[in-house]
Each structure stands twice: as structure tokens, then as C-alpha cells.
Amino acid sequence: MTILSRYLFREFLKMAAACLIGFLALFLVIDFVEAADELLKHHATTSEILRYYLFRIPNVFFLISPVAVLVAVLITVSLRARANEFTAMFSVGVSPLRAFAPLVIGCTLVSALSLGSSEILAPQANRKAREIARARIRPGRVAAQFSLNRYWIRGENAFLSAQVIDAENHALNGFQYIEIDRDFRPVRRIDATEAAVLPGGAWRLRDGRERRFDADLKPLPFREKEFAFPETIQGFLDGETPPGEMTYEQLSGYVRESQARGYDVRRYEVDLHSKLSYPLLNVIIGLIAIPIALRTPRAGGVWRSIGAGLLIGFFCWMTLSASLSLGRKGLFPPIAAAWLPDLLFATAGVLLFRRKPS
């Protein structure tokens, strides 16, 4: 790496670190202002609050990194352009590709850190943060535990299990109810394709079968039947494991097994693809920021770059959110919903590069 490349790389890293720390602090402060009432109302200690936000950092870093990189590139390029440094480079034969390569390498480094954070740190940290919030905001309430690609709850006299939690419709797919006696021996097992709780509290199971262990174990199929289980569905809704608490491998295994059983897990499939497409935005967003910063380097200075970065970042976030939402609702194929924004932003960056002033 030449002296010039090291200089640009160092300047970008300094600006990226400042932007990441600034956006991270801003995000956590805003989140604390919104959540403070709930945390303090339930007598959360200072230690618990600090640990809660410490555990939030890996996921917040993953979320804010593209906007921070966008602003960092805009400021770095605009400051260098205002000082005519790029003009000097181009005049001595340095190609644009070589001039901006350190910035792309820096964006790639942040992208790798974002991916590493989401895979190594965020799953466990998110889980611990949710445990603190749940212990303080909903103390004593039973929540499902995710194990062996299923959700499990220990009820009053039974084990309840579900393959997929449909929180939007308050329903469970791949439901199992294993009733046990005081000696921990199985009494009855009920399997159903779908389970939901009626307004009166009764469970309505569909496409299932019931077998009793104190009889001949012959399964008794049913199309639709109501059961008076003492447990509620809320424990499953409270315990649903978000994709942010799973690694790519764990989420991929859950999606494969659920699809093999015939369940609709497109929303998880969208999140699976976005685990790879979202970190890549750190590189793609840099391709958009460089030509924008070169267009009007003398107008507005650093604050203009920050404003432009926030505006562009908001537009990108809206586009990404809309695409992911359409994918989760089944209007887009999951892979298209996750990768289409990256493709659109990359195309915009290439077009802007081709139109940039010399």
C-alpha cells in the first residue's frame, strides 16, 4: 500500500470510528429515554441497566454501521476534495479506482466487522439483554425456550412444544402437548398441525391426533377439536426467539427443518438472507457516497455531508424495510426481498460513478 493509500485509509478509519461511536451513543441514549420509564418502574438497578445496554451494543453496531460508513465516506471525500487533493492525484496520473480503493477496503473492513458482530457477539448478547428486560418488565411469567429447532414450555402438568410461532395470528404450527402425571410418566400426547387459543381460553387444535398411554396407544385423529389446557399461548409469544439471537447456521437449520415439515417460515427465510445482505451494504453504500461527495465539495462543508448522509441513509433504510416487509408477507421471494435493495443501491452507485465530474 502506497503512502497515499495509507493516508486515505487512515483518514477514513478515523472518521468511521468517530461516526460509529457517535451514532452508537446517540442510538443508546434515545433508546434509554424511551425505555427508562419501564426499567425504573420495575426497579431495575444501575448495574442491570448498564449490563442491558452493554449487551445491546453488538446488535446496535450491526444496525447503524451502514449509515455511519455512509457519513464517514461523505466527510472523508468532501474534505479531501475541498483541499483539491483528488484533483492533484488525478493530475499526476492516479486513476480513480486506485484513489478510492483505500475507502472501499475500509468499507469492506467495517462490513466484515458487522458480519462478525452479528454472528459471534450479537446472538448471545441479544439473548442476555432480553433476559434482563423480561426479568424486570414481566417478572415471573413463563416464556418458551428454543431447543432442537423447537419451542418448549413446561406447563402445570405437561410439556408444550411448537415448531413455528405465528405471533401475528396468535397461533402455533407443529404443536405438541405431552401430559404427565405426578411421577413424571406420560399420560397423554396430542399432536396438531395448528393450535390457537379462543377468546374464552380454550385451545382449538386442527388436523391432529390424540393418544392415551393408559389405553392401547392407538391414535385418535381429529379434524378440529377444542381442549381445556390450563396453559396459555402467551408463553410462546413471549419466548419466540428473534433471528437476531441465532447465528446464520442455527437459523438456516431451523428454516430447513421447518420447511421440510411443510410449515411457512418465509419471514425467517427473509431474515436468513438479510444476515448476509445487510453487512454488504457497508461496501455498497460507500459506492454511492463517493461520487455524491465529489459533486459539490465546496458547498456546505462537513455539516452538509452529515445531512446528506442522514437523508440518503433514511431513504436506503425505507427501501430496505419495505422490501423485507414485502418478503415476509410473501409478496416477494425471500431471496429477492433481502438482496434487491443491495442490487438497487449498487446500480445507483455505479451510475453515479459514471456521471461524476472529472
Summarize the SSE layout with pairings.
Layout: H1 3-41, H2 46-82, H3 85-91, H4 96-137, E1 145-147, E2 150-154, E3 158-162, E4 164-166, E5 171-180, E6 186-197, E7 203-212, E8 220-227, H5 234-239, H6 248-260, H7 266-295, H8 301-328, H9 334-355
Antiparallel strand pairs: 1-2, 2-3, 3-5, 4-5, 5-6, 6-7, 7-8
Question: H/E order of the elements?
Answer: HHHHEEEEEEEEHHHHH
Overall shape = elongated
Average pLDDT for all residues = 88
The helicity comes to: 55-70%
The total of beta strands comes to 8
Oligomer: single chain
Structurally, the number of domains stands at 2
Kindly report how far apart the N and C termini lie: 24 Å
Major beta sheet, specifics?
A: 8 strands, antiparallel
Number of helices in the DSSP assignment: 9
Structural class: alpha+beta
Uncertain spans: none
Structure commentary:
By secondary structure, the protein is an alpha+beta fold. It has two domains: 230 residues, no CATH class; 95 residues, no CATH class. The chain is 63% helix and 16% strand. Strands 1, 2, 3, 4, 5, 6, 7 and 8 form an eight-stranded antiparallel β-sheet that branches. The longest helix has 42 residues. The chain is elongated, with a radius of gyration of 26 Å. The two termini are 24 Å apart. The model has no long low-confidence stretch (mean pLDDT 88).
